[in-house]
Design brief:
There is one protein chain. The protein folds into 2 domains: 176 residues, Rossmann fold (3-Layer(aba) Sandwich), CATH 3.40.50; 169 residues, 3-Layer(aba) Sandwich (Rossmann fold), CATH 3.40.50.2000. Helices cover 39% and strands 16% of the residues. It has 14 helices and 13 strands. Helix 3 packs across helix 4 and helix 6 packs across helix 9. It is globular and about 60 Å long. Pfam families: Glyco_tran_28_C, Glyco_transf_28.
């Protein structure tokens, strides 16, 4: 039986990292893996770093919930992408398609359906994103990260699997992280991560309070493409990166506490590594509000402290960071009891089952 799987997902790193977690496991189990993504999305850059994973770019259009002149052009790009995906699947003949969502995945799931190939979707957030909502009728299984999400998906197709976290994140070494950042052992480390694209609001508020925070913490700041502040390049105890690849496990390992957006993958990674986190979810104005739900769920479980963007000021940020640090052991104790990050094996089983149908 042909063991070939076609993966898709992109637009932001959050729509790729589950695939990055799965690829080595699939290869270990003898699967041939290929990937469909967009021409210029972050998925192309991330998948290019892997060996033996052919990448097929297709045309994609952004699906927006608001008015934009591109809304007139983009449906045609999606139709073109669907034709391209249909032809690629016909030619490559995967036995299963797996999607992590994002706009590029819609044509691929429809292309799989047109070819009669089973398609599995993984949804990371509490409520399904627009792309996954459109793709769901064409999928055979919909795997969810939060049990609450099952109520938003077709009963026959929905399966709770939890979060899929890359194995290498568990292999971090705090000393390597400190050496990479030229940090010392005598002050705790605050890791700041504004999602895979960075967050201007978090960057600005953090930098406005940098001198105060640096008297108590060393700070490693992942600030997003184009957001490094050159004037702070020489600041002792403060290290900025646009985006971090293979050193990320070490940076996470050395962090005592984390300040982050509430993207699903990131927060489950911090949960896996038992890092007390202060979450500032992306506001409802700028999104469908999924990060707010993610953050509230973690707050309720006692894994995170939450500060809403509308309440973000210099004082509230400092207060929240210092309170989190003071209470960190309580957060760690509660996170030690969680079993929410064991999805990889369940996903692999579902993929094997889909192939055999
Ligand atoms: C603005 C936006 O649309 N955000 C969405 C996007 O977030 P975003 O792309 O930020 O997604 P996540 O926080 O879920 O995941 C980011 C991933 O990138 C990795 N990473 C990040 C920074 C870095 O330097 N190196 C690195 O490897 C993280 O370890 C993580 O695995 O997808 C998430 C999952 O569907 C959603 O919850 C978010 O609402």
């Amino acid at each position: 039986m042909n063991k070939k799987i076609m993966l898709t997902g992109g637009g932001s790193a959050g729509h790729v990292t589950v695939n990055l977690a799965l690829i080595p496991k699939l290869k270990e189990r003898g699967w041939d893996v290929c990937y469909i993504g967009s021409h210029h999305g972050i998925e192309r850059e991330l998948i290019a770093q892997l060996k033996n994973v052919p990448y097929f770019p297709i045309s994609t259009g952004k699906l927006r919930r608001y008015f934009d002149w591109n809304n007139f052009k983009d449906p045609f790009k999606v139709i073109k992408g669907t034709l391209e995906a249909y032809r690629l699947i016909k030619k490559e003949k995967p036995s299963v398609v797996f999607s992590k969502g994002g706009f590029v995945s819609v044509p691929v799931i429809i292309g799989a359906w047109l070819n009669g190939v089973p398609a599995i979707i993984h949804e990371s957030d509490m409520t399904p994103g627009l792309a996954n909502k459109i793709a769901m009728p064409f999928a055979t299984k919909i795997c969810v990260t939060f049990p609450e999400t099952l109520q938003h998906v077709n009963e026959q197709k929905g399966v709770y699997v939890g979060a899929a976290v890359r194995d290498e994140l568990r292999q971090g070494n705090a000393d390597k992280g400190r050496a990479y950042c030229q940090f010392t052992n005598d002050k705790p480390v605050l890791l700041v991560m504004g999602g895979s694209l960075g967050s201007k609001r978090i960057n600005d508020t953090l930098r406005a309070n940098l001198q105060t925070l640096l008297s108590d913490f060393q700070i490693v700041h992942i600030c997003g493409k184009g957001n490094v502040d050159a004037q702070l390049a020489e600041q002792k105890g403060y290290k900025q990166f646009e985006y971090v690849h293979e050193e990320l496990p070490h940076l996470m390992a050395m962090a005592d506490i984390v300040l982050s957006r509430a993207g699903s993958n990131s927060i489950f990674e911090f949960l896996t590594l038992k890092k007390p986190m202060l979450l500032i979810p992306l506001s409802k104005g700028a999104s469908r509000g999924d990060q707010i739900l993610n953050a509230r769920s973690f707050e309720k479980a006692g894994y995170a402290k939450v500060l809403m963007e509308e309440e973000l000021t210099d004082d509230s940020l400092l207060d929240a960071i210092y309170t989190l640090y003071r209470d960190k052991d309580e957060y760690i104790r509660r996170m030690q009891q969680s079993e929410a990050t064991a999805a990889l094996n369940k996903l692999l089983t579902l993929i094997e089952e889909a192939k055999n149908k």
